[in-house]
Fold:
Amino acid sequence: MDEDTCMVDIAKFFLEFTVDESCGKCTPCRVGTKRLHEKLEKITSGNGTMQDLDELEQLCYYIKENSLCGLGQTAPNPVLSTLRFFKDEYIAHVRDKKCPAHVCKSLMSYEIIADKCRGCTACKRACPVNAISGEVKQPHVIDKSVCIKCGACIQKCKFDAIVIK
Ligand code: SF4
Ligand code: SF4
Ligand code: SF4
Structure:
């Protein structure tokens, strides 16, 4: 893991595992892990609030204290440890609506810097949904309403004219 890893996304990844593995015998684990996962999904899709962060933490402790076995008692740990050490990333997701690692697709967009664009058309030809327009040797533009954030254009640009914001 490095700066290109989204810690909220990582917490969600671990929760997906525990939701699948929960045997369902006790409610805190069976239902609680699902609710935790839903909150993380809400945050990574750009709909989270500061209140969700507080509720996320409270729910983690409730699940830890009331689950019957080790699975439920440890399931919230990835959320708690990322909240503890990477709270700034959570706050960026809910307050600034940004994913600092550029992992959460709902919270990022691709843009062409006009001053750097040479109008080579490479990105336009690579885009699978025709989201890029522009004439040869003229700055190109990405239509964000059409872009599916596949990343194909940024790989083709030899002039570092495309950025993720
Ligand atoms: S905490 Fe253990 S017993 Fe309870 S639902 Fe989860 S896996 Fe089953
Ligand atoms: S990210 Fe993909 S869909 Fe969006 S403009 Fe670039 S190539 Fe097109
Ligand atoms: S590939 Fe880069 S330089 Fe070429 S048109 Fe696209 S943004 Fe401009």
Remarks:
- Residues 7-94 form a domain with the de novo design (two linked rop proteins) fold (CATH 1.20.1440.230).
